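We treat protein structure as text, and this decision shapes the records that our systems exchange. Because each token names a local backbone shape, the row as a whole describes the fold. For reference, a complete record is included directly beneath this paragraph.
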Amino acid sequence: MSDKHAAPLAPRPGNVFSGVPLDRLALSRKDEPWLAAQLTADSSLFVPYWRDKHLVGGDVDPRAAFLSRDAIDGLLDGNEEIALLGQRVDTADGALPAYFGIDLSHADEAAVLAAAPGAALQDIREIVQIIPTEEASILSYARGLMYWHARHRFCGVCGGATVAEAAGHERKCTAEACG
């Protein structure tokens, strides 16, 4: 039996994993004073990433959980990886919040969940069609950077440890002979 009057599901336009609504701020990534100010600004938002999953809240209308600095403070112990994603400039109040991807995979799952009460950890591939497109693109951008950092902790030339630079968009070998 076919219901010819049922409305078909409308496909989402474009590639959900692209079209990040952020200015990626390539020229500001090495401005240490500006970055330090953004990392502690009340307006800054953090996109948590925990073992290939993101925090998502809401049962009826699922949304990505973007956290304030206060919400993540208890999770910061120096083992997290943080990368500047960019700045959103289309907010209603004209604020320019900076978005940062933050890998909290070193933290306990319960502690990460406590930072966003009511949220759950979910893989972007499982929720991409049910959260707003712009949020999905921000989550996928954060996931890509955090995944890259996790898998490139060592130099491909000499095997030495690498460190993040340029607000998380570069990795540099720490071996003096290599660099």
Q: What stands out?
A: The beta strands are 45-50, 53-57, 63-64, 81-87, 98-103, 119-122, 162-165, 170-173. Helices lie at 32-40, 69-72, 109-114, 124-127, 133-151. The mean pLDDT is 89.
